[in-house]
What we know:
The mean pLDDT is about 80. This protein is an all-alpha fold. It has helices at about 5-10, 15-95, 95-105, 110-120, 125-140. The radius of gyration is 45 Å and the shape is elongated. It is built from five helices and no strands.
Amino acid sequence: MPNLTIQGFTNNPIFIMISIILSSVVIALPFFFLYKEQKIRRENEDRRYKNADKRLDAEHKAKMANEEWLKNQSAELLGLSKPISKHLKEQLLENTSWLSNAIIKSGLKEPKNVFEDRLDHFGDEKKFIADKFVPYINRKM
């Protein structure tokens, strides 16, 4: 007849084997859950990095497309401006009176003021340079 006392039960090899297995499972279970949690976090981070990479790639492509568009627009405007500027140059060489009339009619400024503004542009700097340069020239002569 089998020994059904606690001492006899705990000495039973099957009970010992089951105890060892259950103890191992109880000890290993938190590590298993920790491993699974870390794996899920890594997968989430990988997805987040992939999404960030996709977003950055899309932004880079948009920026490159915008730069290409700007280059095309610049080339197109340059192509349009060359004939216009050539025609203006020819008109100015032939007759400059129309420019004064155009400025007056546009209401921007009177022609006299436009040319005065140009002469006065950096006037203080020009005067400073002249004040320093003229004495130098006089000393060298």
